[in-house]
Write a structure and sequence with these properties.
Chain A: This is FAD-dependent oxidoreductase. Chain A: Pfam families: Fer2_BFD, Pyr_redox_2. Chain A: GO terms for molecular function: oxidoreductase activity. Chain A: Keywords: Oxidoreductase. The complex is a heterodimer of chains A (about 475) and B (about 375). With about 475 residues, chain A is an alpha/beta fold. Chain A has 3 domains: about 190 residues, FAD/NAD(P)-binding domain (3-Layer(bba) Sandwich); about 150 residues, 3-Layer(bba) Sandwich (FAD/NAD(P)-binding domain), CATH 3.50.50.60; about 80 residues, no CATH class. Chain A is built from 14 helices and 20 strands. In chain A, strand 18 and strand 19 form a beta hairpin. In chain A, helix 1 packs across helix 2, helix 5 packs antiparallel against helix 10 and helix 9 crosses helix 10. Chain B has 2 domains: about 170 residues, FAD/NAD(P)-binding domain; about 140 residues, D-Amino Acid Oxidase, Chain A, domain 2, CATH 3.30.9.10. In chain B, strands 1, 2, 8, 9, 10, 11, 18 and 19 form an 8-stranded mixed beta sheet that branches. An 8-stranded mixed beta sheet of chain B has the order 5-6-4-14-15-16-13-17. A two-stranded antiparallel ribbon of chain B has the order 3-7. In chain B, strand 18 and strand 19 form a beta hairpin. In chain B, helix 3 packs across helix 5. The longest helix of chain B is centred in the first third of the chain and has 17 residues. Classes of the chains: A alpha/beta (about 475), B alpha+beta (about 375).
């Protein structure tokens, strides 16, 4: 296993990580950029498979030209090493100010011989992004129920529509580009159900409208999606969501219900709608497992706390993008640039600091308008699956929490097995935490805290022993 | 100020089983727990029931366990565990699939033969198999295994169910549980003790200190310094896989203990030291120990190599200088008893009986006079 010192190590090759790499290079730093996938771009700039690449790739992508420019710059800069297929599985932070050791397996995840590497960086920038959060409801695990992100990936990456009569439900502006992608791949979108009501949407989006002028590009992007929706006569319902999906082999219909301000269904407002696919997305959660491993402080919502220079609570560790708050690509690009410049020991441009502040305010509007409300906990029935990997139901978790004196998150997780599967709680972690917290935890905690960031084969791990430090006496 | 017969300090598996047994004998009991019940060593252990002689030395352990002295205790604990579920009326996932203890070197073989003799002396049925016979019985064993002993009584229980079940059973008999209540003072008052916590004082005749890694500082509150120190060891667990390993596998000369739990995950431990011990939060597992432990595991059980590691964690245990358990009355502190040290999970039901007998003034169900805290005392007040 090779050990390699470097100046700035960036983990995550999406918009935030690429922007950070570019700024750190501009500041004269030597940069290593680690990306787990087989191409830069992250979730936002997702690619067509190599075999089907064509000239129309930019059609479904926002800021595609900017992506190409940055990618080219990084590729051509001798100070930048881009490592694709790089899976960070652990980070050791030694005492006494030494460089942290970032352990990486390089190669396809299911490949036989991945190359173990260890980087010893002076600074780390985490740009590991976020992932969709889907709230459980009866039938959410039926075939035909997709996360909006999966539907978007199929549309962007494979040009495949998930169904013919599709309903899009959840919360937040991300539902809109999904509608656009579905329409462009030939699906009929029968409606969009936004869980937040008009009152909350107005509070988030219409207060202090003069501030929104600064985020014209963002508003323009959303406006484009809205125009397309209107053009295709897709009805948009606020304060409404899917609270159940029904079907034998796959989804055949859904139950829609009006929601109150806390997202509790209003009695008497339920109605059935026939569909052959549903796309749901209730928001995004940050992928903080690595940041937590090195000890970064997070806020009450689980986002990493950073200062004006994107510094975390841990010395020489920075975060950019969705890790610090869900704000979309513009915020990620700005935060990345600030983190990269600062990590290289230079001052970030004043204009980008200003942009970051503007887009952060935009992110706060997003939270005000669309943030998840606790009433979702009334949607699942006792038999509704909570953790799909381990097949644990909401009812089982509540029963164990009520029956046991061991009111710690960890022991409840281990007793119920919720969050213990191969996804390591990434899908159900926050839902499990919230359900258990409402049962009154004595010892809360975060399911994202784990010393092994991703599952790695024992053979590969055992092989790292040869070049580890000397045997402890 | 409240008054009870016995204050038990620590709601781990030992405190829970002792509190239950004492309540059953008619004593009023309060359990004071600094944090959440069953969270530290008792919630982080693999939950093995070690009946055949164990590997005598954790990696990094200075002194070996005295296996010969241990074996009669293990036999008694084995018998005791066979009635625990019926007694509590709860399913604790007690399983006795048996276990192999493997040997690779000449030295391992010597140890294996010697301990098998001792096991027969105390009535533990073990069988010595040569490498090929062992591989015929358990085909996943690797080529480096030269011999193995088979003990049909080895097994495990679910450590997340056992402690809480004893606590619940105790509470049905009137045991009071106070979680989040650290003991800050331990004063001798007349015939008994005054136990102080941030929320008040409890007066009692007996104090049972089953606080695991906190045994030493708590006994020090009563003016007695015991030579014990907490260490943290770590465990590793793979993804769930179809049945692969029907029994326990341990190594006589190396820190290695492997089993596949009911859910299908393979649990790998063997007492490897954690990176750091943190008694205020969760201790940090060491990548170095992880790699070392996993390398042993895949040498003995090569098919494990392709399984993925899902999680690892570290938990504390209370170590004594001679690596033997500590149980009994603290000399010079009448009415103060301690129980803890190595293999507390295996010994939990047995130690509960011993402690209850000591409080009642009855003869001990098993001779543990040589395991008392007197041997660990640095100087009494």
């Amino acid at each position: 296993m090779s050990e390699k010192a470097c100046q700035v190590l960036i983990i995550g090759g999406g918009p935030a990580g690429m922007s950070a790499a570019r700024a750190a290079l501009a500041g004269g730093a030597q940069v290593v950029l680690l990306e787990a996938g087989d191409a830069l771009g992250g979730q936002f700039w997702r690619h067509l498979p190599e075999s089907r690449k064509g000239g129309e790739e930019q059609v479904l992508h926002h800021k595609w030209r900017h992506f190409n420019t940055v990618q080219r710059e990084l590729r051509d800069d001798p100070g930048c090493e881009v490592v694709l297929g790089a899976h960070v599985w652990a980070i050791e932070r030694p005492d006494g100010g030494q460089a942290p050791a970032v352990h990486v397996m390089v190669g396809p995840p299911d490949g036989a011989d991945r190359e173990p590497r260890t980087y010893l960086p002076q600074s780390i920038i985490f740009a590991t992004g976020g992932q969709e959060r889907t709230l459980p409801f009866p039938g959410w695990d039926l075939p035909g129920v997709y996360t909006a992100g999966a539907a978007q990936a199929l549309a962007k990456g494979e040009r495949v529509a998930v169904g013919q009569r599709v309903l899009v439900a959840g919360a937040g502006p991300f539902l809109l580009p999904v509608v656009t992608s579905l329409i462009r791949t030939g699906a009929t979108v029968i409606g969009v159900a936004e869980a937040s009501g008009w009152k909350r949407l107005a509070k988030g989006w219409l207060s202090r409208p003069w501030e929104l002028a600064a985020t014209r590009s963002k508003a323009g992007e959303l406006g484009g999606y809205l125009r397309e929706m209107v053009h295709h006569r897709v009805p948009y319902r606020a304060g409404t969501t899917v609270i159940a999906a029904h079907g034998e082999e796959s989804v055949e219909s859904v139950t829609l219900a009006r929601l109150d301000a806390d997202w509790k269904p209003v009695p008497g407002t339920q109605r059935r709608v026939e569909v052959d696919a549903v796309c749901v997305s209730h928001g995004f959660v940050p992928r903080t497992e690595l940041a937590l491993t090195v000890g970064c402080t997070v806020d009450a919502h689980g986002f990493v706390v950073v200062d004006d220079q994107q510094r975390t609570s841990v010395e020489n560790v920075f975060c950019a993008g969705e890790l610090t708050g869900i704000g979309g690509v513009d915020l990620a690009l700005a935060e990345g640039e600030i983190a990269g410049a600062t990590a290289a020991g230079t001052q970030p441009r004043a204009s980008v600091v200003k942009a970051r502040n503007v887009f952060r305010a935009f992110a706060e509007r997003l939270q005000t308008a669309h943030g998840i409300r606790p009433g979702w906990q009334t949607w699942p029935e006792p038999g509704t699956t909570l953790c799909r990997c381990e097949d644990v139901t909401v009812g089982e978790v509540r029963e164990v929490a009520a029956a046991t004196q061991a009111r710690g998150l960890r022991s409840l997780k281990l007793t119920t097995r919720a969050g213990l599967g191969p996804c390591q709680g990434r899908t159900c972690g926050r839902n499990t935490e919230e359900i258990l917290s409402s049962c009154g935890l004595l010892d809360p905690g975060r399911t994202a805290r784990r010393p092994i960031a991703i599952p790695v084969r024992l053979g590969e791990l055992a092989a790292t022993t040869s070049s580890q430090r000397e045997e402890t006496p | 100020m409240s008054t009870v017969d016995v204050v038990v300090i620590g709601a781990g598996v030992l405190g829970a089983s002792a509190a239950y047994r004492l309540a059953e004998k008619g004593f009023s009991v309060e359990v004071l727990e600094r944090g959440a019940p069953n969270r530290e060593g008792s919630g982080t252990t693999a939950g093995n029931l070690h009946i055949q002689a164990i590997h005598t030395r954790r990696p990094g352990q200075a002194v070996p366990v005295d296996s010969r002295r241990f074996l009669p205790l293990q036999k008694a604990a084995s018998d005791r565990w066979s009635t625990v579920e019926a007694e509590l009326g709860e399913e604790l996932e007690v399983r006795r699939p048996g276990g192999f203890m493997v040997a690779e070197t000449e030295d391992d073989l010597d140890q294996l033969t010697t301990k098998a003799v001792w096991e027969r002396e105390v009535g533990i049925k073990t069988e010595i198999l040569d490498g090929d016979t062992a591989r015929a019985e358990l085909p996943v064993l690797g080529p480096s295994v030269r011999a193995a002993t088979w003990c049909p009584d080895d097994g495990y229980a679910n450590p997340l169910l056992a402690g809480p079940a004893w606590l619940r059973a105790g509470m049905r008999l009137g045991v009071q549980l106070s979680p989040g209540t650290p003991v800050t003072g331990l004063e001798r008052r007349g015939e008994g003790w005054e136990v102080t916590t941030p929320t008040g004082t409890t007066s009692c005749r007996w104090v049972v200190n089953t606080a695991g890694p906190w045994i030493q500082p708590l006994t020090a509150l009563a003016g007695v310094e015991l030579r014990m120190r907490p260490v943290a060891i770590q465990m590793h667990v793979t993804v769930r896989v179809p049945p692969l390993l029907p029994c326990l596998v341990q190594h006589i000369g190396r820190g290695l203990s492997v089993k596949q739990v009911t859910a299908g995950n393979v649990l790998i431990g063997g007492g490897w030291p954690a990176e750091s011990l943190d008694l205020d939060a969760r201790s940090h597992a060491s990548l170095h120990s992880m790699a070392g432990n996993l390398a042993e595991a895949i040498r003995i059980l090569p098919p494990l190599s392709r399984l993925s590691l899902l999680r690892m964690w570290a938990g504390p245990l209370a170590a004594t200088p001679d690596e033997m358990p500590v149980i009994g009355a603290v000399p010079g502190a009448d009415g103060l008893l301690v129980a803890g040290g190595t293999y507390a999970f295996t010994f939990a039901p047995l130690w509960a009986d011993v402690l209850a007998a000591a409080v009642l003034g009855e003869p001990s169900p098993i001779d543990v006079r040589d395991l008392g805290p007197d041997r660990l005392i640095m100087g009494a007040k």
